[in-house]
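We emphasize that the prediction below concerns an isolated chain of 180 residues; any contacts that depend on oligomerization or on bound cofactors are therefore not represented. The input was used exactly as deposited, without trimming of termini.
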Amino acid sequence: MKLIFFSDIHGSEYYAKKAIEVLKEEKGDYIVLLGDLLYHGPRNDLPKEYNPKGVIELLNANKNNIIAVRGNCDSEVDQMVLKFPMMSDYTIIVNNDKKIFATHGHIYNEANMPQLNEKDILIHGHTHIPVAKEKEGIFILNPGSISLPKENNPSSFGVMTENEFLIKTFDGQIIKQIKL
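Result of the prediction step, given as a token string:
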């Protein structure tokens, strides 16, 4: 199974379109959205082509290929307009012999780890900073932010295959990678 991870769209129709393009180009099985889908949040500037209604339309058109979790900027009113579930603080995906704990990162993160076994994966967004590392036998991953990257990082997303996680830019550059 090939999973494509995006975090922190923050209402950018421009980057939501890019996410759908990546799903097709990468031949991914599912997009995993790690929260902060529609609203830009009070601490963020407006992202490029801020249009939450356009994001709703794009995501709903691809609802059968989306797994999503709630971010700290997502609310119940967002769930009312989206045609896929996104109000859970986390979801667990089992891919071959690995448990993937997918969350936004504002509750569960490296400082507040969920219960995981060796070689399991914690993947989250929230910080807008790409991460791919192993700590005490657990993989800690963050695809970075698609629309509002921080610390001079480019817009990025994650691609997970059976044995590898890549963090890529939209021009195909691999900025981080780790064998799983």
